[in-house]
Amino acid sequence: GTGADNDLYINQAIVFIEDAIQYRSINHRVDSKSLWLYRWYYSRTCQWILSLTITLILALAFIEKPSSLTLTSDVRYRLPAWNPPCGLTESIELLCFLVFVVDVSVKSYLIGWEEFWKNKWLMAYILTLVVSLTDWMVSLSFFCTEVVRVRRILRPFFLLQNSSMMKKTLKSINSTLPEMASVVLLLAVHLSLFTMFAMLLFARTKDGQQDKEWVKYFRNLPDSLTSLLVLLTTANNPDVMIPAYSKNRAYSIFFILFTVLGNLFLMNLLTAIIYNQFRGYLLKSVQSSLFRRRLGIRAAFEVLSSLRETPANAQQSYVSVGALLQVLQKAEMDSRCKQAIMRSLKMCSYDQLSATQFQKLFEELDKDAIKQHPPSPEYQSHFMQKMQFAFGHPYFGYLGNVVALANIISICVVLVLDADKQPSERDDFFLGAINCFFILYYLLEMLLKILAMGLKRYLSYPSNRFDGLLTVILLVLEISTFAVYGFPHPGWRPEFMGLLSLWDMVRLVNMLIVFRFLRIIPNMKFMALVVTTLLDLVKNLRAFAGILVVVFYAFAITGIMLFQGAAVPLGNARITAHCSVAPTNSWSIGQTTLMILLFFQAHFIYCLLHLLFLLTVNLICRWAKIYFVAWWLISSVIWVNLFVALLLENFIHKWDRRCHPESLSDIEYQRTVELMFRDVLEEPTEEELMEKLHQHPHLQLCR
After folding, report:
1. pLDDT digits 0-9 by tens, 610-632
2. Are residues 400 and 483 in the same domain?
3. How many domains does one find in the chain?
4. Is 19 among the domain residues?
5. Four-residue CA torsion sign, 539, 540, 543, 547
6. Pairwise CA distance, residues 597 & 601, whole Å
7. 44-59 and 88-111 are packed helices; what angle lies between their axes, rounded to 10 degrees?
8. Residue 319, H or E segment
9. Residue 46 — pLDDT band, cuts 50, 70, 90?
């Protein structure tokens, strides 16, 4: 009866608040059993198991045939790689598939069958599982000897469907494709026209000595198109124009016009279009997340207002403070937010909360993480107070930056003077002595800062932790050097002892000193702006990195299947290719082509690494050009421009806010994307929230 209903309302409110915290949709079943299953599914343990399963099935590519478990990656020199026996990786795959079957079953049940048929991602999830399991059974029937395994290409989908941000990103990319297609078409027209011009300009003549341009780059239509496509990436610039330029300087006009129109105009126009489409991408995404959060909080209010202990009111609904406290005690949320909301509730002078008051309490979720720095110690001695003022002043930090710069300059001078000297002629006395002096200063600086600020306050700043850690490491290395090789003195060149030679120890110390110089970044406003922009991209745009992993993985697996056996090593020097390589091209390009084919059939790791290299390489295996052009279009043309657009949006927003700096003397704000756009977000109206709630497929509101 009433008690059971109240328990149900409490559990519904708990789940809705947790949905709001995680920006999840509230359109799921809300009966007692479904709520228990829902909370179990989104528990840390279940989500950790799901993430581990996705990682595991993606990592199988590193041990499957061709295996990456070899010391060297070059198939000409390495020993036969260990390949797992048939059934080992297949057993792991089956376990992963079973987890995914449970995952899709629970998701489908929780949203309801009516919503399931509207969810294209879940239907694609099931289709992917069906195809993968079918391919798995085919693989076993062939005793794992088949070359093509479709399920390997489909594996990145499991990562893709598990991230709502990655889905939103794909949706935004899809909406941008028509505009990008128009520029790509214009780029193709530009490439085709100049290809025709090139074939006419550099046609074959009677004089074979003057036909170097035709022989190397413009022998036929495919070669001409490839040469200009690679020139569009500037990978073969200026090699492609050297033979023609050597014959007649006027030929340079053709290449200059092609580069200016293609690179400076069309490629930058593509960047502008992508930026224009994505200029509001983050804002729209955050606005949608804000609506989900407000909707979840309002849904919690509505179900709590249905409790029997809440007095009925025809005009307005209320929620008792006691009911909300009961919900907060059971809800999974950040302890800082929970304590702040409870403090606000205890300070309330009323027992009932209106919808506005209820929503205002949970605005604590929108506030960014605030780190309060501990106070500095209070000294009674007048001398110690002066010491604290002097060594806690920003000018003392500036002095440390000047000393660090002097250390860098001294290292540069020594390196320049010793650049041409043989190791036996090098005297490490001067470099060892100055390093000893500067490291002692760094130690003294760290101790004086700790004296002025106190250890807890000193460690509360990331820049101090970075500085202090490197100082301690430098001190340990210096003491180890002295213990093994003695103190610096003229002609200090002792024999090799221990794990590292003296020169190796000195070089390691110098590298850490150079790295320590990054401490100046927080003191340089504009440099700090650039660095924080990059850090924000790393922290908040993980969805784009995830899609990049998906693209790399899919192309790497496809490359392994396409080019397996394309190049066969016959020894340390001879390599044969099973695809047509233009024999008249330059030696370096031909060797590069063959080596990359070798790496593609070598193993998964090098496929990933060489996809980065293939952004600009001139591959001439003709039938494989479609693969490499597709990779170039997706990675260089689309994805790099997409990243540039997002980088610009983030940087411009920070640049516009630089005139309104916040006081960061004792409080450190750790910004997120949500708070970054907080001042331009629009709060949803009550009508919008109630309309959405009344459309809930499983929740029946009393009003």
Report:
1. 554 454 444 445 667 787 788 88
2. yes
3. 5
4. no
5. negative
6. 6
7. 140
8. strand 319-320
9. very high
Q: Rounded to the nearest 10 degrees, what angle do helices 221-232 and 625-632 cross at?
A: 20
For residues 321 and 310, give the distance between their C-alpha atoms in angstroms, rounded to a whole number.
Answer: 10
* Stretch 269-286: mean pLDDT: 73
Q: Alpha-carbon distance 165 to 154, whole Å?
A: 19
Token pair recorded at residue 398: 């500036």
Q: Could you tell me the CA-to-CA distances from 269 to 170, 175, 231, 258, 266 in Å, in that order?
A: 22, 17, 18, 15, 5
Greater confidence, 583 or 522?
522
404: Cα within 13 Å, side-chain hemisphere: 23
Residues 515 and 562 in one domain: no
Tell me the pairing of strands 369-372 and 352-353.
Answer: unpaired
Q: Do 217 and 138 share a domain, yes or no?
A: no
CA distance 635 to 633: 6
Q: Which of 113, 134, 162 corresponds to the end of one domain?
A: 162
Q: Residue 166: CB partners within 8 Å, gap ≥ 6? A: 159, 160, 543, 546, 547, 550
Name residue 577's beta-bridge partners: 567
> Up-side HSE of residue 342: CA atoms within 13 Å toward CB?
14
**AA identity, residue 385:** Q
In a domain, 312, yes or no: yes
Cβ atoms 691, 23 nearer than 8 A: no
Q: CA-to-CA distance for 74 and 598, rounded, in angstroms?
A: 8
CA-based Rg of the chain, rounded to a whole angstrom?
Answer: 32
The CA distance from 620 to 209, in Å, is: 23
Together in a domain, 402 and 440: yes
CA dist 696 and 691 (Å) reads 9
78 shares its domain with 134: yes
Q: Fill in the DSSP letter of residue 569.
A: E
618 φ/ψ sector (left φ>0, alpha ψ -120 to 50, else beta) = beta
CA-based end-to-end distance of the chain: 21
Task: Give the residue numbers spanning the domain of 651.
Answer: 533-568+585-671
The pTM for the full model equals: 0.73
The tokens for 117 are 């048929």
What are the φ and ψ backbone dihedral angles of 557, each rounded to 5 degrees? -65, -40
Whether 398 and 479 map to the same domain: the answer is yes
- Mean pLDDT computed over 310-327: 74
Tell me if 550 sits within 8 A of 156, measured CB to CB: yes
Residue 265 to residues 29, 186, 207, 261, 370, Cα–Cα distance (Å):
53, 11, 37, 5, 45
CA-nearest of 602, 601, 597 to 614 is 597
**pLDDT value at 164 more than 50:** yes
Whole-angstrom Cα distance, residue 564 to residue 558? 10
Distance of CA 557 to the CA centre of its chain: 21
Token code pair at residue 10: 């409490």
Q: How many CB atoms lie within 10 A of CB 592?
A: 16
Between 424 and 370, where is the model more confident? 424
Residue 372: strand, helix, or coil? strand
DSSP symbols for 383-443: HHHHHHHHHTSHHHHHHHHHHHHHHHHHHHHHHHHTTT--TTT---HHHHHHHHHHHHHHH
- Sequence letter at residue 503: W
Q: Which residue has the higher pLDDT, 701 or 321?
A: 321
How far, in Å, are 667, 673, 675, 682 from residue 678 at the CA level?
19, 9, 5, 9
- Mean pLDDT, the chain, as a whole number? 77
